[in-house]
Design the sequence.
């Protein structure tokens, strides 16, 4: 029996996953400073059930650094605390340390084969946050069952980095769920279908 694999990503309206304030860009803050109580409650609900996280090395390093520093107040959000307690599989041939993550394992090899195996053997659903290049390859391999995107009401035409969809082919998306949170942020869940 195969479990579902969800690619969970934060996005600006113009499709960027993060920003670079640069010398004069200013600081948006986490969630581009657009989180509200409804959004944080929705995120907490998404992370209430047991899941296994799947990361590429770059995103895992970034997340582990944020949690390890203890300086980012966003780590106190309920969903982030639940995230840290979840088991994680990190797909990497360069990383050899779990960076203090309580229940992480590092696996080297072909990402598609690793995730295909996890989908068959895991007793809980799989979820991946960001990890753009990893999820581009998994989407191309037909292993991503759902794309869950939080669309924050900002445009980062000048400071946006990490274009979320730049490495992808063409896909049709079937809407599974949509909601407006705090009157401004969209929570969208799609089932992808490759075109061509």
Sequence:
């Amino acid at each position: 029996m195969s479990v579902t694999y969800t690619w969970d990503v934060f996005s600006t309206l113009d499709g960027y996953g993060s920003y670079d304030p640069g010398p004069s860009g200013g600081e948006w803050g986490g969630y581009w400073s657009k989180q509200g109580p409804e959004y944080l409650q929705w995120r907490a609900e998404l992370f209430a059930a047991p899941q296994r996280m799947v990361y590429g090395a770059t995103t895992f390093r970034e997340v582990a650094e944020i949690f390890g520093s203890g300086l980012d107040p966003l780590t106190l959000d309920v969903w982030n605390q639940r995230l840290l307690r979840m088991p994680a599989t990190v797909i990497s041939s360069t990383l050899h340390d779990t960076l203090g993550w309580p229940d992480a394992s590092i696996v080297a090899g072909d990402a598609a084969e690793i995730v295909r195996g996890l989908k068959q053997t895991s007793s809980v659903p799989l979820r991946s946050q960001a990890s753009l290049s990893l999820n581009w390859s998994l989407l191309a391999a037909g292993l991503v069952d759902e794309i869950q995107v939080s669309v924050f009401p900002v445009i980062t035409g000048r400071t946006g980095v990490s274009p979320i969809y730049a490495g992808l082919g063409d896909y049709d998306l079937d809407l599974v769920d949509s909601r407006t949170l705090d009157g401004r942020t969209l929570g969208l869940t799609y089932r992808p279908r490759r075109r061509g």
Observations:
- The longest strand covers residues 171-181.
- Strands lie at 5-12, 16-19, 52-56, 88-91, 104-107, 126-129, 146-152, 160-163, 171-181, 185-194.
- The CA atoms of residues 30 and 73 lie 9 Å apart.
